[in-house]
Structure formats: C-alpha cells, structure tokens
Amino acid sequence: MTHHTYCHARVDLPRILRNIDTLGLTRYCEVRRQWDLRPRIIEEQESIRIYTEGDTDCSEVCFCERHQQVKCEVLECVENRPCETGFAVYNHNAPAYQAYRGECICYSGDFICMRPRAEEYQLPTGLFLLVGFSRTEEALLRAVTRGGVVDAVIPLQTIVSTVSSNMGEECRLDLYQHTTDNLVLQVRHFQISSGVSNHNYTLYMFQEERNRCEKPLRLVAEMINKRDPRIHHDVRLSLFVLAEVIDTVPNPQHYSYSQPSPLASGVWACWWAWPMALLVLGLESPPDSIFGSLPVFFGSVGVAFGKTRERHILLWETKEESVQCSQKCDVRNAFSLA
Q1: Strand pairing category for 127-133 and 240-247
Q2: pTM
C-alpha cells in the first residue's frame, strides 16, 4: 500500500520572497530528513524523490505545493528478489549477464540492460541513446505521477538540452522505439534537422549531427549510469537505470594517393629507359646503326614486358589457388568439426 504523510516545510518568508541567484527561484520549499546534512530545495509545484538512508530500495516522493507546503508520499519498498536463468542466479541489484544486451543488472527479479533484446529492435543510420528502465519502479511511481516511462522523456530532453547548450550545441531527443525494458531515443541537432525529414537526410548531415551531439549525449549517459543526483532524485528520471550511446553513422572515407605497384613501376621504368638509351646511341653512333637496332630494342621491350606479365599472372593464379585451397580447407574443417 502507498502511505501518505504530510509535513510542513521550514519556511523563512523573507528568504522566499527575494530572488535566489544560485537557484533562480523565488518560491520554494525545504525538506530535511535526519540523515541530511543540508535541506533539500524543491521549487514550487515540483517534486523530489528521497531515499531512506543506506537503502535505495525504500523512498518517498515529496511535493512542494502552493504556499510553500510540502506533502510527502512514502512508496512501497522494492522487493528484494533474485533473477534466475538456466545458467546462473543473480542477486538483487547485482551485475548480471544477458547476451547482446550490454551491461545489465538484476533488479527485483527483472533484468535491466543497456540494450533491448536483439529481436526487439534494429537501428537505422544515426546517433542513438538506449536507456534501460525498471518496470517495477514504473508501476510504483505510476500511482503518484499518473504517468509512465514515456513521460520521463520530457525531463530527459531537458537534461540533454542543458548539457548540449553548455557546449554551444542544440541537441534534442526523438523517441524512436519503446520496447519491453528499454527506450530507444534518436538524437537530433536543431540546426541540422530543422525542416528535414528522415528520408532526406544525407550522410554528411548524419556525420555532422554526430560530431555535434555525441559528446553531450555521452555525458548524459554517464549521469544515468553513475546515478547522478539530478537523475536519481528526479521522480520521473529515477526510472532510468542504465544507458548506452550507439553510433551507426558510417565514418567518412579518407582517400590517399598510394605508390604504384611494383609491376607498374617496372613497366614505366622500362619504357623510360629505352628512349634514354636511344639518345645516347644517337650521340655516339651513325643514323643507320641506330635505326637498324630499333627492332632489337623494341623486341627486347616486348620480351621483358611479356615475362613480367607472365610472372604477374603466375603470382595471381598462385593466390587464387591458395584462396581456393583455404576455402576448401575451411569447409573440410567445418565438416570434420560437425
């Protein structure tokens, strides 16, 4: 059952009525538990999630209502249940393994992972934030917030906008897919995506979007994974447990001018050598002897080129045979292993 407790904020009216530069608030509530070193500040009409000292499975949600009055609702504690598979048993809140799903933890009998199950999603080109959430806590908080995990995308968007703005960028999130235990969010840049549909995106636009938004997105993912207070104590964002950034944008191709092959180098060197030889002969020999020797020279060029080509073909055939042999060996090995 959900228990309701009401407590009045410790209010200092003169402090409320003047602007608070550090918070940017004019009306707020203070909530302080016996284990808190300092009071918690809640903006009017906002809420906060407070965990019992030393036990993150038990918590309460406190609202700052009008006239600086605080109302707190104690949530049921998350049940400490293990996760069982055919190979292992994982304790509650312990790291766990699920194939192809990235980092995972066991949470009250359910696996929470960075990625959805392999059969549940397929990512197109783009930059994505994959978030794993707790269905158990979603059910607990639904009675208080009247919303689910999809509603948490709005405050998460606020976090992404704030972090990216501090870096001089304007990044936002689009809900791409909602699976059983995950949200798949595609990242967009306002300047790049404004007025452009998905099928009109170019590779350059995807790459530019990644270059601008990847760093702030990874910072937000780190905030979720490390249970940053801005995530952990936000009533809706506290549903998010694990996050991962996945980039499916192809990298730009870098073209380099490579050196010519030995075969080409040898042919061109050969062709350049014969004119030089003719020039030398022209200086030292009479014309009749020069023109008489041309068939011999060019015949030698043909023989040299023909031998070089034969060696090249022989090497190529040797490579072909070795590849075919390798493929046949692999097939034989596969049948022998089977």
Answers
A1: antiparallel
A2: 0.67
